[in-house]
Amino acid sequence: MHFAFPPRKTSRPPPYVAAANARSQGSFLTRRMARQLAIYGLIALGFLYIVKTWFFAGPAPEYIPAGTPPVVVVTTFDSRLSDSFKEKIRLNRETYAAKHGYATFFANASDYDVGNNPITWAKIPSMRHAMTAFPHSTYFFYLDINSLVMNQDLSIEQHIMQKSRLEQLMIVGLPVVPPDSVIKTFAHISGDNVDFVLTQDTDNLCQNSFIIRRGDWAKYFLDAWFDPLYRSYNFQRAEGHALEHIVQWHGTVLAKLALVPQRIMNAYTRAEEGGTDAMYQEGDFIAAFPDCNDEKKNTCEDDMAPWWGVSQKSSDSSS
To answer: What are the residues whose beta carbons fall under 8 Å from the beta carbon of 203, sequence distance 6 or more?
Structure first.
């Protein structure tokens, strides 16, 4: 039977067409969602990278010019010393520094304004001065005129400041000011976080021989130590007692401090102020003559006279 007109079209597609359209649409949606997820993922990764860079990344490696001495040995002279004595002290430091590629910095106490205070305060601005003169050096080793380098072979890094070595040496849980301060050295401190190393004898912190690691903390510490308030307080032992006050009552200083055994960098040549375990023995790094530079005594040149030969012999044998 023939119809005059074609069959009327229905709006409902045949089943096979609907299935094909569904598959095509599903594929399109899947691809679209995949692109959106990829875009969102890239945005999230970029955001995380920015957050990590801004808030969690460590400081950029510091540029240190080639030839920068890793250590600067600092000594401060005063006008009471004879030229011959100053020359011997200078030679002692320069010989040691040359062996290890270090620099030396010699200052005159008269270059710094300490007012009417004891001239020994000048050691503090002389250290700041040295940091300005050698802005890229890592360690600054202050050695007073009452001390001699005896073992020229011992480097600051290997003998004291290397992380594992320092952690082995540092004395923890020790009264920071002897003999019975209630404030004690921290028990849990990494060698990498130590910026200030010194010793103590039976009565005091010893500031004739100490090491400071350069950085913002070092500048803050030296500025705090030299604060006019402390200089005007008239401490009995001047900058020595000021230092003891700071390390006991300022946690930001104590947290960066390490005390090491006295013979490591400050062996005494007589036992008036140190125990028998602090007395100099052959091979020790530093020989110290406590209080020989006291304003009332000023006997360093005479006290050191028998030791010059030993010190020079050490430098000759190590060269």
So the answer is: 178, 179, 273
